[in-house]
């Protein structure tokens, strides 16, 4: 699938919020990587409220890049710094946008990247529209895309009143990860999977996105979001969609998006009992967090996709901060053979054959199968056929997605219809849910999460570091 044809490249990149955290941690390192690869050679104009000089911005950018790793290409760094420009001003002031227009000079097709808090999205989008800076331009926005269905619709309405749909690039950085792109490839580039990839053979699917660290100074943000909004409604649902979609009907990412939308539509809206919300002990002492906070830093849920293929198969999703390790993994557990012909073929560890996708820290795919142990007895063990992927020089997700947006390729971006359908699934539990239960930092979350899955087995706790 190639989506790169027929698009015009942006001739400038405007980064709103250039002095902020996202720009420091992700955007500058990605821009540096893009320059190194020869993928960025247009003006990069930063916009922010701080009254900085261009020299200050350059210093800041250099620091951000050094912080992210070694400087292994000094000319590329110098070139990036030479591409930088800066406009300081208030986003509510039309003068800021006029100054931006002047700074953009001859550029006619800028890409505007909104690396700013979501509550400012609409102000900036309207400012761009009013100054004529949206014509032939693109806009790149970051999740969260709204905080519920109504606000997501309103955000989309404002974006669409100023930009054409194909000029809006909504970043869910999980879609730019190799391991996640590989789900689509692995499913549809192979023959052996399709016959078993359905309710007749799959017993359950689990996805764990676990982080060993806490909210890391983002307490105030977390208070307004919580785990369900932060990673489940977007990152984890996108993974579910890629695992669950029907084969795209033709060779185009438009067909992929169409199939993903059907999956979001077929997800059964969640009810309070489908969800366990946890909070690590100590969270309420984090800066910016209410002393009596009921915000979840852990979320486990049971989901059903009411489609022909997946009817009755439970999908268990789990994510949290301050858990036992930093690791992301999918486990697709298969049903047992119809007859237990060997005394030992009932799984001793409670698991039948499965397919395991390790998404991070190291990408791997494992297929677990039973094999006979040497000897007279017909007994055996479950072993993994293991495929470890260690390709060097992968593009980081932001690098890939920023490059795609600049090139005008929307294949790996979230689409409005999918986002709204995903909100509709979580909408019933956004306001109506059980209170958080606390869990110890360094554990796998509250015991209540075990009860959620008990009818279909147990959580698979991925090992944080592999030794193979
Ligand atoms: C972000 C969330 O979208 O994704 C963070 O806001 C989370 O809370 C992060 O830590 C996880 O991304 P990654 O790429 O580190 O798995």
Can you walk through the features of this model?
The protein is an alpha/beta fold. It has 2 domains: 12-142, 3-Layer(aba) Sandwich (Rossmann fold); 175-466, Dihydrodipicolinate Reductase, domain 2 (2-Layer Sandwich), CATH 3.30.360.10. Helix content is 34%, strand content 20%. The chain is built from 12 helices and 15 strands. It has helices spanning 21-36, 54-68, 74-83, 94-104, 121-130, 149-162, 178-189, 219-244, 253-266, 397-407, 416-431, 448-453; strands spanning 12-16, 44-48, 84-88, 110-114, 138-142, 168-171, 202-210, 275-280, 298-304, 314-320, 327-334, 354-360, 364-372, 380-388, 437-439. The strands form 2 sheets. A 9-stranded mixed beta sheet has the order 14-13-12-11-7-10-9-8-15. The chain has a 6-stranded parallel beta sheet with strand order 3-2-1-4-5-6, sandwiched between helices. The structure holds 6-O-phosphono-beta-D-glucopyranose (BG6). 6-O-phosphono-beta-D-glucopyranose binds at residues 211, 230-231. Residues 211, 230-231 line the site of 6-O-phosphono-beta-D-glucopyranose.
Key attributes of the depicted protein:
Rossmann fold, globular, single chain, 2 domains, alpha/beta, Dihydrodipicolinate Reductase, domain 2, 468 residues, 9-stranded mixed sheet, binds 6-O-phosphono-beta-D-glucopyranose
Largest sheet: number of strands, sense, barrel closure: 9 strands, mixed
Strand content: 15-25%
Give the oligomeric state of the chains in this entry, treating copies of one chain as homo and distinct chains as hetero.
single chain
Query: What small molecules does this complex bind?
Result: 6-O-phosphono-beta-D-glucopyranose
CATH superfamily of the largest domain: Dihydrodipicolinate Reductase, domain 2
Put simply, the count of helices is 12
In total, the number of domains comes to 2
- Give the H and E element order: EHEHHEHEHEHEHEHHEEEEEEEHHEH
Termini separation: 33 Å
How much helical structure, as a percent, in the residues? Answer: 25-40%
Q: How many whole angstroms does the radius of gyration measure?
A: 24 Å
Strand order of the largest sheet: 14-13-12-11-7-10-9-8-15
């Amino acid at each position: 699938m190639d989506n790169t044809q027929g698009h015009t490249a942006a001739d400038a990149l405007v980064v709103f919020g250039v002095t902020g955290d996202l720009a420091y941690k992700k955007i500058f390192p990605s821009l540096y990587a893009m320059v190194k690869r020869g993928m960025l050679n247009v003006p990069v104009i930063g916009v922010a409220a701080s009254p900085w000089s261009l020299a200050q911005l350059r210093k800041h950018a250099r620091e951000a890049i050094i912080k992210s790793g070694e400087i292994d290409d000094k000319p590329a760094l110098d070139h990036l710094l030479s591409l930088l420009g800066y406009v300081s001003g208030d986003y509510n002031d039309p003068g800021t946008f006029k100054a931006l227009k002047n700074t953009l000079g001859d550029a006619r097709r800028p890409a505007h990247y909104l690396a700013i808090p979501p509550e400012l999205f609409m102000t900036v989008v309207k400012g761009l529209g009013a100054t004529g800076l949206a014509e032939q331009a693109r806009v790149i926005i970051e999740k969260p895309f709204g905080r519920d269905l109504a606000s997501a619709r309103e955000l989309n309405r404002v974006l669409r009143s100023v930009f054409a749909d194909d000029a809006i690039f909504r970043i869910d950085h999980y879609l730019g990860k190799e391991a996640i792109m590989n789900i689509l490839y692995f499913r549809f580039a192979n023959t052996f999977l399709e016959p078993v990839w359905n309710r007749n053979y799959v017993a359950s699917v689990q996805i764990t996105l676990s982080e060993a660290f806490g909210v890391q100074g983002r307490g105030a943000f977390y208070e307004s979001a919580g785990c369900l909004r932060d990673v489940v409604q977007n990152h984890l649902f996108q993974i579910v969609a890629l695992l669950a979609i029907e084969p795209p009907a033709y060779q185009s990412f438009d067909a992929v998006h169409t199939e993903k939308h059907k999956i979001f539509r077929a997800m059964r809206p969640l009810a309070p009992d489908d969800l366990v919300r946890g909070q690590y002990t100590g969270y309420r002492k984090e800066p910016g967090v209410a002393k009596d906070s009921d915000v979840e830093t852990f979320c486990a849920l049971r989901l059903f996709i009411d489609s022909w293929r997946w009817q009755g198969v439970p999908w268990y999703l789990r994510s949290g901060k301050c858990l036992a390790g930093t690791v992301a993994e999918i486990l697709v557990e298969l049903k047992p053979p119809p007859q237990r012909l060997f005394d030992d073929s009932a799984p001793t560890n409670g698991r039948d054959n499965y397919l395991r996708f390790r998404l991070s820290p190291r990408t791997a795919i494992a297929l677990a199968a039973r094999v006979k142990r040497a000897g007279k007895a017909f007994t055996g063990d479950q072993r993994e056929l293991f495929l470890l992927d260690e390709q060097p020089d992968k593009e980081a997700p932001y690098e890939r997605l920023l490059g795609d947006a600049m090139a005008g390729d929307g294949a790996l971006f979230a689409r409005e219809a999918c986002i709204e359908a995903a909100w509709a699934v979580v909408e019933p539990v956004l306001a109506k849910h059980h209170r958080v239960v606390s869990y110890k930092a360094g554990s796998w979350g509250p015991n209540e999460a075990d009860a959620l899955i008990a009818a279909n087995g147990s959580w698979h706790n991925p090992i944080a570091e592999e030794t193979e």
